[in-house]
Structures are given as structure tokens and as C-alpha cells.
What does this fold into?
Amino acid sequence: MSRISRTLIASAAALAFSITLNTSPAAASVSRGYIDENAGAQNDFSDEATLWSGSAYQNSNAVGVIQAILYAEFIFDAQDVDCAYGSVTTWGVKELQKKLGFTGSDVDGVVGPKTWNKLDDRLVEGSVYSDSMLYIKYRATNGTTPNLFLRARVSGGTYMFKYYGGLFGGNAGWKQALYRPLSGRECS
It folds into this structure.
């Protein structure tokens, strides 16, 4: 093989490696600043940020969406929904991943593309909540389908999740699923 051929092959390999390293999943929701809808409920989580203890969004309402799912799966109690991704949430996500059929290294406590995709498959459009909002049901692994989320009835509409007030009472109600970091330890 000539020196030019080896150089071209090495350059192509380096370029392919660089493209692979720089490619990231779609980030439409993150750039909008909130978890949003896509076409059909079962595509709504397809472009979400990876969440884990230590991520840029570890203390955000986006974490509250995952914690609401942990509540629907009977892994969390209502007071555990605090929008903070700490050791308890990491443990809860591992339990959820096991319920979803993950094994081995896929049970990592990180809500990345594989976990989001499995959760996406469990979303079902529900009834109309208001002129501007629609219920989104979550089909839990035990077969129940609670009205877990609200979603705006417009293209790219925002998600909201039911917040039960945190450990100390607090501000109960529907909260927008924002990626904005929280200053305190309670969903806002």
C-alpha cells in the first residue's frame, strides 16, 4: 500500500472518529428550555437531555418528570418528588430500569437515550384537560395508566407534571418541566 493511500485512510479514519465524538442526540427540547411534545405522545421524550446526579440539569423541573414516573411506578412516595437528582433518584432510576427490562451495565441510574426511549413507549394521549392542555397518561409496568402529565395542545407544547409539594409541604400543583436549574431544593 502506498504512503498516499495510508495517509488518506488514516485521515478518513480520523475524520470519522471526530464526527462520531462530536455527534450528539437531538437537543430541541433542551434548547427550548423545557420538555416538549413531538408528533404523537410516544415521541415526546425522543429528544431530551441526559439526566444524572452531576448533570447540568440535576436540580431542575425536568428531573421532576422522572421522579413523577418513579412515583407512578410505586418506587417513590409523593414527598420524594423534589426535582433534585441525588442518590435516592439514582437508586430509583436503577429500580425503574430493572422494571423496564434493562440488565447489566444498562442499569446505571442515568436517564439517557435508552431510558427515555423506553419511557417514551409508555406514554398515551389522554382526555382534554382544558382548551389549551391535554392529559398525557403514563402506562406503568403494573398496567395502571394515571394522568401523570399535562401537555400544551400546540406544536412543541410544554409538558407539566403533578408536583405534590415536596417533603415540607411547599408549593403543590402542576409544574412546567423546565431545564432551568433551581436555586432551592423544591420544584418551582
